[in-house]
Specification:
- The chain is mostly helical.
- The protein contains 18 helices and two strands.
- A two-stranded antiparallel ribbon has the order 1-2.
- The chain is globular.
Length: 525
């Protein structure tokens, strides 16, 4: 295979001069922030869109989940495509498509239309995610500046996930449910114009032949695995469709991965995993997302169901964590020369582990100011980890493969988060049911509803009169916080173990990473 070389148009040269590269960073941050907000905002619009569109239970599940299915399934293909046709071109195509799909979603008049529009949002979101990181990598060639820029990008992305509930709460207090989608349109229009004028173009000038057989193997395989994980988290692992989808997806991915080892120009370059910096950083991200998922799941229920706060108040309650992450991101670049990449990542995971276990000690009546410092420490630890691992992943891949490397990272994080929800979510539910002690006087149907989930327990309590209703709601709240103690302790322990693993896997990674040498091509089969 011909050794590829980096290709940048004159826009790329200009982007590295003066302040223009920082304008590139700003554009990429806004684009990734919109994706983060869009990921979390829909959950808060479900009640109002359900009242207007009247979807069936199955349709509602697809409205919520189809975005993640399509996004996760297409990331690897989209990243590879960006390296071939140009990362700027792919980003602008994705931005235009995302804006159009957002408008269709906002004015959807049937569940089927909304499901189709959400699938398109996932498709175009998959083109935006890897393109933003690879464009930042192409514009910042100085290692120290690159680490800072990647950290800022990661901090903005982290903060955007918590902004979803806040933005959603503000919009839904004044407008109809479609406003959570329509707000994307003018912002994407600005990104489209500014990006066309400012963003540099970069691509692999000799990408080789695209293996069209690998495309459906990758997409359908990832779709099957992600569908199985999400369905297991919602309906339980005993559901037959879980095992059918998991087997189907795993078989296709096994064929896909084998094919990549013998192709001269693979869709997924497995040689990247031979680099300790790359594989170690990917592993740290998977552990972090797996264990951190219990916080997003558990504390959404804790604030809204157990404490009875509004979605807006719940969003504001967790916002200090991502804000701390955003301010911590630049500090990661200062720590790397002092203590190294391995210790910086380990420090972040250790802080997250301690704070995750600490947050689990809450009760139904814990004062918010007692939780606030732990929320802030958790956000800071998260960004110490992600800022360094994101930069390590991008810097350890050849510049001609940065979109593919970013796509692998995003895919691993999607899988880590989905697995965390499935596994730790099941642990949370199981301990809730085992810890729940209901008072006498309930019918079998009422007891069954209360044992199904903490939402069912609190709602059952609200429907019952007087002291009995208060006893049921209090019992549900106590059982849930008890299950949260156990689950967050498991998550915190996994993060501490991840910190130890990071010290080992990243111990030989230098503080300053330059352009790696491309490895030998895979042997042709």
């Amino acid at each position: 295979m011909t050794t590829p070389t980096t290709h940048d148009t004159s826009g790329g040269i200009l982007a590295r001069q003066g302040g223009r590269r920082w304008a590139v960073l700003a554009i990429c941050c806004v684009a990734s922030a919109l994706l983060g907000i869009d990921t979390s905002v829909l959950n808060y619009a479900v009640p109002s869109l359900s009242a207007q569109l009247a979807p069936s239970a199955t349709q509602l599940l697809w409205i919520v989940d189809v975005y993640g299915f399509v996004l996760g399934g297409l990331l690897i293909v989209a990243g590879n495509l960006g390296d071939r046709i140009g990362r700027k071109k792919l980003l602008l195509l994705g931005v235009a498509g995302f804006g159009a799909a957002s408008a269709v979603s906002a004015y959807a008049n049937s569940p089927a239309t909304l499901i189709a529009a959400r699938a398109l949002l996932g498709l175009f979101g998959a083109t935006i995610m890897p393109s933003t990181l690879s464009l930042v990598r192409a514009s910042f060639t100085d290692p120290k500046e690159r680490t800072t820029a990647v950290g800022i990008s990661g901090g903005v992305a982290a903060a955007s996930f918590a902004l979803g509930p806040v933005v959603g709460g503000l919009l839904l207090d004044h407008f109809w449910w479609g406003s959570v989608f329509l707000v994307n349109v003018p912002v994407m229009a600005v990104i489209l114009v500014a990006g066309g004028l400012i963003l540099p173009e970069s691509r692999n000038p000799r990408p080789g032949r695209l293996d069209w057989i690998s495309v459906p193997l990758s997409v359908l395989g990832m779709f099957g695995v992600i569908y199985a994980i999400k369905t297991a988290a919602r309906d339980g692992a005993a559901e037959p469709s879980v095992w059918i989808a998991a087997g189907f997806g795993a078989a296709l991915l096994a064929v896909f991965l084998h094919r990549q080892t013998v192709l001269p120009e693979p869709l997924l370059d497995l040689r990247l995993f031979r680099t300790p910096a790359f594989s170690g950083a990917i592993g740290a991200n998977v552990v972090t997302l797996f264990a951190a998922s219990v916080l997003s799941l558990g504390f959404s229920l804790y604030f809204q169901v157990v404490r009875g706060w509004s979605p807006l108040d719940a969003g504001l309650a967790v916002l200090p964590g991502p804000l701390a992450a955003a301010f911590t991101a630049p500090a990661a670049a200062l720590l790397i020369p002092l203590i190294g990449r391995a210790r910086t990542v380990a420090a972040g995971l250790f802080l997250m582990g301690l704070s995750t276990a600490g947050l689990g000690l809450c009760t139904p009546h814990t004062a918010y100011w007692e939780l606030l410092p732990v929320v802030v420490v958790n956000g800071a630890g998260l960004m110490l980890t992600f800022a360094v691992t994101a930069d390590t992943i991008l810097a350890s891949a050849p510049s001609t493969r940065t979109s593919a490397a970013a796509a692998i990272s995003e895919t691993a994080m999607e899988l880590g988060g989905a697995l965390g929800i499935a596994v730790l979510g099941s642990v949370l539910s199981a301990y809730y049911r085992s810890d729940l002690t209901l008072p006498a006087g309930l019918t079998a149907r009422q007891a069954g509803a209360a044992r199904e989930s903490v939402s069912g327990g609190v709602e059952t309590g609200r429907q019952l009169p007087g002291a009995l209703g208060r006893q049921v709601a209090d019992a549900a709240g106590r059982a849930f916080t008890g299950s949260l103690h156990t689950t967050t302790l498991i998550g915190g322990t996994l993060m501490v173990l991840g910190a130890v693993a990071a010290l080992i896997t990243l111990r030989d990674v230098p503080a300053v990473l330059g352009e790696p040498e491309p490895g030998p091509a895979p042997a042709a089969g």
